[in-house]
Amino acid sequence: MRTLEQIQMRDPFVLKQANESCYYLYGSTDPDIWKGKGIGFDVYRSADLIHWEGPFPAFRPDPGFWSDTNYWAPEVHAYRGRFYMFATFKAEGVCRGTQILVADSPLGPFRPHSDGPATPKDWECLDGTLWVEEDGTPWMVFCHEWVQVTNGTVCALQLSPELDRPVGEPILLFSAQDAPWVDPVKNGAGYVTDGPYAHRCRDGQLLLLWSSFRQGRYAQGIARSASGGILGPWVQEPEPIFENDGGHGMIFSTFEDELLLALHTPNRTPEERPVFIGLSEKDGRLSVR
Description:
By secondary structure, the protein is an all-beta fold. A four-stranded antiparallel beta sheet has the order 1-2-3-4, with no helix packed on it. It is globular. The relative contact order is 0.13. A hairpin with a 2-residue loop joins strand 6 (82-91) and strand 7 (94-103). It has one domain: Glycosyl hydrolase domain, family 43 (Tachylectin-2, Chain A, 5 Propeller). The chain contains one helix and 20 strands. The chain has one helix at residues 146-149, and strands spanning 10-17, 22-28, 41-46, 53-59, 69-79, 82-91, 94-103, 111-112, 125-132, 138-144, 153-158, 171-175, 194-200, 206-214, 217-225, 234-236, 247-253, 259-265, 273-282, 285-288. Belongs to the glycosyl hydrolase 43 family. GO terms for molecular function: hydrolase activity. Keywords: Glycosidase, Hydrolase. It holds the Pfam family Glyco_hydro_43.
């Protein structure tokens, strides 16, 4: 058993499984995600969010898998009786992108489902997440990376009902500079968008978490859909909800109906750890408890 303080992880994602009365914790788990050969993704399991079994190998690349580096930000979503992993990969001479994988169990093993990245092949992309609209239409929300476009963006791409391919072209939701709190990185080289995650509030409002940098520190921001749908238009909250060098968050509720924000902090390798932060939700607005 391990505690969160003993788990090196970026981009934490929690899947709650009611039929097992437990939680699964995924994330970027390679010791150094920035360089070197990618190993895969591990998953941990817990009944109480304190003591974690694992790591279990959720994904390991088969021989011939197209990507060998930058294994980032796995999310696992239950959909139509199976479990779908959205994860970022890259290879030399190939644009970074989000591929969709599938398994019959939250523990995996996850296998490629989409034909390579579902994001545009000539875009540098990352951090795809699944959102299913109330009419049942699945969308992938992802980031078009600042390293290619300078002012990073968040886009939505409709997926097939089988989640194996894109349908149509990406739709721009917003850019990093739309948020008043975002500062440039690397001496003004660009503006970052990271880690989108959609959350439907109890009053029906739709929020989108995403991350960037403020005064040199990683921070967790929130945008609000004026229409209540994934295509927005999106209105940025003026201040981040967390700005103490942490982000790439998601929101989940416990079996006791407590709302928690999961993110990693600090934003330094190998010090990053997953943390859970209690949230209050009132009138479609979130605040840290």
